[in-house]
Amino acid sequence: MTELTLPQLAERTDHTAPLVLLGRLWNGVDEHATEDGAVVIEGERVTFAGERAALSAPANALHVRTGGTLMPGLIDLHVHARPGYLAWFVAAGVTTVRDACNSLETVKHMQALALKPRLLPAGPLLDGPDAFFRHFGPEAVHRPGDGMERRAGAWVVDTPQEARDAVARLHGEGITQLKLYEQLAPEVYEAAVRCAEELGLPVMTDLGMLSTRGLTGARVDARQALALGVRTIEHVSGYALAYRRMGGDPLAETLDGTLLDDLAGLTVEAGTALVPTLMIFATLASDEVFDTSGVPLANLDDAVQASLQSQWQRVHAGTAPVRHLARADLRLASELLTRVRALGGRIGAGTDTPAAAFNLPGGGLHQELELLTRAGLSPLDALKAATSQAGQILGRPDLGVLREGAAADVLVVRGDPLRDLRATRQIAAVVQGGRVHTPAALREAVVRQGAEAELARSS
């Protein structure tokens, strides 16, 4: 038996030998951890995860006593990824991200990067002719077939047939889910959902919140989306509009529990998951700068961090007039997600990073877990929202778990996250697809990737 330390294992260039990681094991599902556990990795898959006493390791396996807790790599279900900070996610233990909106050109570029989380892209979102994305410049919005659509983050569709054609085009481009936005007409929205269903594409949707355009620009509310069977509703969007259409006032200090119970029941009956992204409300709701200290890479000093911090300072200052709306969004989201969970519904963890303010790529997910518990979820449910539950939401039962056949994505942390949720921030190593990375090596890679992206952007 060959025994190595984590740094020694990370330095190896031969990745053919099986790996045996020893330590406390939480498999992403169970209520309790296995104190003396083991995970065997062969290639890019887990071949064993359980009690060390039951381990029968291959003779040529490399053994590592981690001295920490072995848990599944984390999943962020809502990000807006960019090449310059893609490696940040891996450095924070986030081994899979669902990219909520990007141009096809950007997706192609990111897929070619060596160090990145598993990227599940939506490509361009679909929206109506008054798409909000027009505020991001003329390149941000195009119509499919106009010759410029590969550069656009949003595609405009006016009719049901245009929606069906766009969905078919995106499916052919290899996207993993379809994103539908707030200003689609109801009949166009329905056509897109029906076509996506025929093609096997899950639908994620943003229908607007109080702090955006959820009571003004949105055409479809949460009840309508639920009736069509969308896979996930992002930001608990569309619920404020549905609540108002049901006769309630979403800005009231006290919300109507009966109406909320009705909405939660409809959500669970539809089998739709909520991805509340509480980070965007929490950062906007506070008059003070949001405290990111203690999360991975919070103290990184490079061009990417400087650019993001500058952006966030402007966003935070510019959104002061909607602080009260962000607080109302946070209240509505918290009330709904706890009701949905109490009924056995699904909650997934997502951040919307780097949107809003002070929402670090990768690091923001650790803060989202804490916000989920403040909203009323148990620490176990919060952890599942970023592991096994997230994998189920993605339709990927091999992600977010440690068991035979699962993807070999392992986060090694100091401490026990089932007892102290902040232990997820104390990263000892990240294993992605069977490759072991130390925090120091990841930090170096993050700085290098950011510098390369900054050089490409300025040239």
Automatic annotation (TrEMBL):
Keywords: Hydrolase. The keyword DNA damage does not apply. The keyword Hydrolase applies. Residues 69-434 form the Amidohydrolase-related domain. InterPro entries: Amidohydro-rel (IPR006680), Metal-dep_hydrolase_composite (IPR011059), Metal_Hydrolase (IPR032466), Metallo-dep_Hydrolase (IPR051781). One of its GO terms (molecular function) is hydrolase activity, acting on carbon-nitrogen (but not peptide) bonds. It comes from the Bacteria. This is Amidohydrolase family protein. It comes from Deinococcus terrestris.
